[in-house]
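User: Could you check the structure of this?
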Amino acid sequence: MWEYTEKVKDFFLHPKNVGEIEHPDAVGEVGSMLCGDALKLTLKIDKKTGRIIDARFQTFGCASAIASSSVLTELIKGKTLDEALELTNQDIAEYLGGLPKEKMHCSVMGREALEAAITNYRGETRPVEREEKVICKCFEVSEEKIRRVALENHLSTVEEITNYTKAGGGCGSCIPAIEAILKDIWSVKPECEAPKAPRKMTNLQRIALIQDVIEKEIRPRLQTDGGDIELIDVDGKRVIVSLRAMCVACPMSDVTVKGIEDKLRELVSEDLVVEAE
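Assistant: Sure, the predicted structure tokens are below.
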């Protein structure tokens, strides 16, 4: 029996924005009834302001899927498309007061439906060859999705991937492939000694290592003094962070940022520049 918060129960028993918009401006459909979860999101968009003025959903799924979809429609109303895209699956889960770990894939499905709807509205297409590389055939989960969800949510085990995507939760034949993907994502580790030449990394590995250093080296030290940090973006050599908790009002925040930069330069790359928003 799953442990649901009162908010999850409320949005499940009294869901908002159920249905389909007539003549919608955007449609996003993800999942499959054959796989056990499916979601259709329809949007009405003010073409002058680019803001979402209405959002409705239809879903085939569990209580978490219904609650997550309902919350999604509430959170994106009134936002511009770019503002809506800033919403993460963690935002959906946190608004609900948390989801059972085995049900986190419901929040991921909502985020994917939103992205699909906005892509549809903008007339954009995704490369077919990337969508065809399916790792989990039981639940039709692609390698691209596994990589993206792992990075966005700092997932490092097959069990976590299953909780967030359902991949590996069927016959299990894809588990070795999932393990290989996770190993590739998180394989770049700090060297004990400085290498003779800079380590060549892919952009994905570079971002993964920055996240890893922040989570394991920097955040714990800040938290011991009542502070915290959030990685906002990585743009080339620029690492954009946001100081949280006690670090926000600290008169030594500039020194803190410089210390973060020094640590990332030491363990990731000497050319990184850290900026606080």
